[in-house]
Structures are given as C-alpha cells and as structure tokens.
Specification:
The chain is of the alpha/beta class. It has helices at residues 19-35, 56-62, 69-81, 155-163, 181-194; strands at residues 4-11, 40-42, 84-93, 96-105, 108-114, 136-138, 143-146, 168-172, 197-201, 204-207, 210-213, 217-219, 225-228, 235-242, 250-254, 258-261. The strands form four sheets. A six-stranded mixed β-sheet has the order 5-4-3-2-1-14. Strands 6-7-8-9-12-13 form a six-stranded mixed β-sheet, covered by helices on one side. The protein is globular, with a radius of gyration of 18 Å.
Length: 273
C-alpha cells in the first residue's frame, strides 16, 4: 500500500444517452488528472450513460454488460495511464439493468457495485435493486469500497464498508437541486463516524429539466473537507492523503483520560429493531 495517495473527483456534465461523448470526456479528464499525479479518480453516477431516462426501453438502449465497449475502453485507459478510476454507468445483465459503479485498476476491472437504495427518480425508476451488498476491494492504493448517491443517506451502507475494512469510499452521485445537505453535512458525517476517506463526485448541468448542483468533495476521516468543487463548472479536485489515517479508529485526546474507539465501543447487541 502506498503511504500517500492522491485522490481526485472529476466533476463534469454527461450527455444523456451519448456514450461516445461521455467516454471520450472521461478519457480526457483521466489524462488531465494523471498529469496532476492523481491515483484514484472518481466520476459521477451514470457518467457513461446519463441518468434521466424517460422509460425502461430508453435506459436499456444504452445499458451494457461489464465486458461491453464503454467499460473496456476505460479499462484500457486505466491500463495505459496506470491509474485507478471509479465511474458510474447503467449495467445490463439479462433482462435487468442496474445503476452500477465500476472500479478499474491498471490491471482491468477490479469490481462492480450495484446501487442498493433506489429512489423514485431518473433511471432508478427502472433499475433493479442491487443484491450483492457492499464489497471492499484490495488495491495497490488501499482498500476501496463503493456507494452511489442515495446510499449516502443510509448510514448502514458506509458503516458496512468500514467494518469490512474500507480505507476509502468512492461515491459517484447525481445530486440535484435540493440535495445540498449531502455535501454540506452527510459526506462529512459518514467520513467522521466511520473514520474513512470519501471521494464524492457529482455532475453539473441539466438533464430533462433537472439541474445538478456540482459541489463534489473529498472528506477525511476527521470529517473535514480536503477539497471542494464549484456548483456549476466542470473541474477536477484533488487531495493528497495518507491512507493509513483511515485505519486509526481509536482517538486518544488525553491518554487514559479521554479516549474513543469508534469500532470497539459499538454495541451491536443493542441495535436490533
């Protein structure tokens, strides 16, 4: 595991249904970020496909399996640029489609996460609930987990990833107008309560009448924002971090007098409802 890792969130405006454009833009931003020494780059929810589809048939037209051309093109970029990236897409599997995040390393596709919590919104009206849960993937950079957008509002999701050893959580999002509490409070809260890094990448622009708020951010295990993006511009934000900080779950303010252990002080025997 590298001692220091440069995390990046790439905020841009995907074009609905235009995978050729979106993949090209992602490739361009990967090159730009690597020139700034980024090692893990996170892109928005449904960055490859767009999100606000009007029907299941429309969504199916752009959904691809993991071995489809869009993901394979980005896997090639990851290999060529020797970088890790996470991007959102609509993934097809038989007759079903999933709102997915894909983790790519220089060696290829490392893992896939299918969105568990689905709001009645955009493509999520037509996608299937993810049933594989929250997995953590060992990489050369550290242990990486993934969530997508609405998952952030359920503390159990991030907690599960943290308990499974995640050092960093990649969070592709499509925060629309009205979701300002996510970058204001929730990213910070999840990072702090689970003592992990969170890289939240939101989109900008408009899609079928929905405006998106940008404000991608990178949060540290102490809950502080290390980097923040604007509300309207395409841009990449960066943070150089010490991944090992996410493995220190015990806070010692005054030895023997004031200490907190975020994991060992839990009482899961009392949490059942």
């Amino acid at each position: 595991m590298n001692t220091h890792v440069v995390l990046a969130a790439a905020q841009f405006d995907p074009h609905l249904g235009d995978k050729t454009y979106n993949v090209s833009r992602i490739q361009q931003m990967v090159i730009e970020a690597v020139h700034e020494n980024a090692q893990l780059i996170v892109f928005p929810e449904c960055a490859i496909t767009g999100y606000n589809f009007a029907s299941l048939d429309d969504a199916r037209e752009v959904a691809e399996p993991i071995d489809g051309p869009a993901i394979q093109a980005l896997a090639q970029v990851g290999h060529d640029m020797k970088v890790h990236l996470v991007t959102g897409t609509l993934r097809s599997e038989g007759n079903q489609i999933f709102n997915s995040a894909v983790l790519i390393s220089p060696q290829g596709v490392v893992g896939t996460y299918d969105k568990v919590h689905l709001p009645l919104c955009g493509a999520d009206k037509f996608t299937t609930h993810g049933g594989r849960g929250f997995q953590v993937y060992d990489t050369a950079l550290g242990r990486i987990g993934m969530m997508i957008c609405y998952d952030l509002r359920f503390p159990e999701a991030a907690r599960t990833l943290a308990l499974r050893g995640a050092d960093a959580i990649a969070l592709p999002t499509n925060w629309p107008a009205g979701a300002e509490t996510a970058p204001d409070f929730m990213v910070r809260a999840r990072a702090y309560e689970d003592r992990v890094f969170i890289v939240a990448s939101n989109r900008v622009g408009q899609e079928r009448g929905t405006s998106f708020i940008g404000r991608s951010c990178i949060a540290a295990p102490d809950g502080q924002h290390l980097a923040d993006a604007s509300s309207a511009s395409e841009e990449i934000i960066y943070a150089s971090v010490k991944i090992a900080d996410a493995r220190q779950k015990r806070l010692v303010i005054t030895p023997g007098e004031f200490e907190m252990d975020f994991f060992n002080d839990r009482r899961p025997d009392l949490y059942a409802c």
